[in-house]
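Example S7 (C-alpha cells).
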C-alpha cells in the first residue's frame, strides 16, 4: 500500500465499520487489496465532477434524477442480454420522464459495482444448519453450503472485473448509437403487443418521433440526441474494496473513489462516527445517504456538516426510504430543518426499502401500490414545503420477473414463484417500471 498516497482514503480504518465481512484469511485479503490498488480506474474523476454538476441541477430544482437497477448484481448475470435489458428499461423510463414530465433527467444506474449487501442478520439457519448470511457476490456465494458462504477476498477482484465488463458494455450502448433518441421505438420491441405499459410507451414514442421529424424538417439534428449521459453508482459498503479503488486526481490532488461515479452510504452503515461516513467525507464523488424513518433532523444536519461542509449543490443526495405509511409524517421535519440550515441537498425518493414484506408463500415482496403511494407522499411533502422532489431511486430489472405484486399488467401473490430471480430484494419488472415512470411524470407535471 502506498501509505502517503492513500493516507486520506484510509482514515476510516481507525473507526468502527459496520457490515464488513469476516474474511477468514487476512493475508489473502492484503494481497487482494494490493492488487486492486494497481488496477486502472473504472471511472474518471472528471466524469464524477460532471455528475456532481448534474446533481447540482437536481438540488436546485432544474433536473430530475432517475437512479435504478438491481438490489444486488450477480456475477452470473453479467451478460449482454441482461445488461441491455436493464439499460433499455432505464432509457425508456428516462424518455417517459423527459417527454411527459418535461424535465431534464439525470440517469444513474445501480449498476457496474452493486455487488455488496448489508444484512439484518449475520447468519442464516436452515433445517438446523447455521451458515454465514449471503452478503453479495463480492463477499460470498448465494448457495447454502459452507464452501459458498465462506467469505472469499478473491471475489473482490471478480467484482472489479464484472464491474469493468458491465461498464464497458454500458458505455458502448450509451455512446455507440443504441441510445440515439431515434431508437426510441427499438427499445420497446418485443414488448408492445403484450403489455398495456408497452402500448402506452409506443404512443409516447410516436410523439417523440414526430417532434424529432419536426426538428429535422426545420433543419436541426442536435448531437445531444445521439448519445446518452449515463452514470454508474453502488452502495460503498466493503471499505477495503472502495478504498483500494480510491485514487488521487492528478489535476487537483483530490481523492476519488474510481469504482463508480456516485456512491451511497446505506441506512445500516451511516453512523455519524463510523467508518463509512469518514470514508465518504474524504472523496470528491457525489455522495448519497439513505435516510430511513428513524432519522432525526439533527442526524441529517450532522451528515451535511460531515459530507458537505461547503454546501455545494450536487455533492450530497439524501435518498429517503421511509415507507408509504410514514413518509408524510417523517419527511416534512427533515426537509424543513435542512432547508432552514441553508444546505442545498438533492432529495430523492427510494420507495422500495420501506415497503418490503413477506408474502404467505415466503417470498420477500413489495406492492406496486405502496411504492407508488410513497412516491406520491414524497411529492406531496415537497410541494407543500415549496422544495423540489428531485428524483426516484428504484430497484428494477429489464427482465419479466415476478417479484413485486401489482402493476397495470398485474402480478398476483400466487404468481411470485413463477420468475422470482432476485438474489436479495424484489425488483420492479419492466412493465411495472414503465408504469411507475408514467405515473411519476404525471405527478411531476401536475
Ligand atoms: C439497498 O439499497 O439495497 C439497501 C440495502 O438499502 P437501505 O440501505 O436503504 O436499506
Ligand atoms: Mn435492496
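Recovered sequence:
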Amino acid at each position: 500500500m502506498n501509505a502517503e498516497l492513500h493516507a486520506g482514503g484510509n482514515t476510516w480504518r481507525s473507526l468502527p465499520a459496520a457490515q464488513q465481512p469476516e474474511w477468514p484469511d487476512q493475508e489473502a485479503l492484503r494481497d487482494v487489496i494490493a492488487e486492486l490498488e494497481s488496477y486502472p480506474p473504472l471511472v474518471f474523476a472528471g466524469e464524477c465532477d460532471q455528475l456532481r454538476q448534474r446533481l447540482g441541477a437536481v438540488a436546485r430544482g432544474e433536473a430530475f434524477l432517475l437512479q435504478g437497477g438491481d438490489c444486488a448484481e450477480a456475477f452470473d448475470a453479467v451478460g449482454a442480454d441482461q445488461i441491455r435489458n436493464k439499460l433499455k428499461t432505464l432509457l425508456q423510463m428516462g424518455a417517459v420522464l423527459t417527454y411527459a414530465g418535461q424535465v431534464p433527467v439525470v440517469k444513474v444506474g445501480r449498476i457496474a459495482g452493486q455487488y455488496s449487501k448489508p444484512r439484518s442478520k449475520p447468519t442464516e439457519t436452515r433445517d438446523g444448519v447455521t451458515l454465514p448470511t449471503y452478503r453479495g457476490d463480492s463477499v460470498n456465494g448465494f448457495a447454502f453450503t459452507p464452501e459458498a458462504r465462506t467469505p472469499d477476498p478473491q471475489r473482490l477482484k471478480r467484482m472489479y472485473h464484472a464491474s469493468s465488463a458491465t461498464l464497458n458494455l454500458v458505455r458502448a450502448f450509451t455512446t455507440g448509437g443504441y441510445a440515439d433518441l431515434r431508437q426510441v421505438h427499438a427499445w420497446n420491441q418485443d414488448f408492445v403487443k403484450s403489455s398495456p405499459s408497452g402500448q402506452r410507451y409506443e404512443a409516447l414514442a410516436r410523439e417523440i418521433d414526430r417532434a424529432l421529424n419536426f426538428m429535422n424538417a426545420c433543419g436541426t439534428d442536435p448531437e445531444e440526441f445521439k448519445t446518452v449521459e449515463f452514470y454508474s453508482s453502488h452502495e460503498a459498503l466493503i471499505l477495503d474494496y472502495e478504498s483500494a479503488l480510491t485514487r488521487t486526481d492528478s489535476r487537483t490532488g483530490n481523492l476519488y473513489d474510481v469504482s463508480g461515479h456516485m456512491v451511497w452510504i446505506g441506512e445500516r452503515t451511516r453512523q455519524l462516527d463510523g467508518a463509512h461516513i469518514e470514508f465518504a467525507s474524504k472523496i470528491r464523488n457525489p455522495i448519497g445517504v439513505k435516510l430511513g424513518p428513524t432519522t432525526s433532523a439533527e442526524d441529517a444536519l450532522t451528515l451535511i456538516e460531515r459530507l458537505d461542509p461547503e454546501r455545494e449543490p450536487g455533492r450530497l443526495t439524501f435518498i429517503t426510504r421511509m415507507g408509504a405509511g410514514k413518509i408524510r409524517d417523517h419527511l416534512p421535519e427533515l426537509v424543513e430543518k435542512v432547508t432552514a440550515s441553508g444546505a442545498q441537498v438533492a432529495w430523492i425518493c427510494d420507495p422500495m426499502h420501506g415497503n418490503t414484506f413477506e408474502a404467505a408463500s415466503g417470498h420477500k415482496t413489495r406492492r406496486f401500490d405502496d411504492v407508488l403511494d410513497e412516491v406520491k407522499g414524497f411529492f406531496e411533502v415537497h410541494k407543500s414545503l415549496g422544495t423540489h422532489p428531485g428524483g426516484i431511486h428504484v430497484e428494477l430489472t429489464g427482465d419479466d420477473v415476478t417479484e413485486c405484486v401489482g402493476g397495470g399488467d398485474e402480478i398476483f401473490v400466487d404468481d411470485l414463484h413463477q420468475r422470482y430471480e432476485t438474489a436479495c430484494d424484489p425488483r420492479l419488472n419492466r412493465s411495472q417500471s414503465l408504469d411507475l415512470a408514467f405515473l411519476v411524470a404525471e405527478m411531476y407535471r401536475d
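Notes on this example. The two ends are 54 Å apart (CA to CA).
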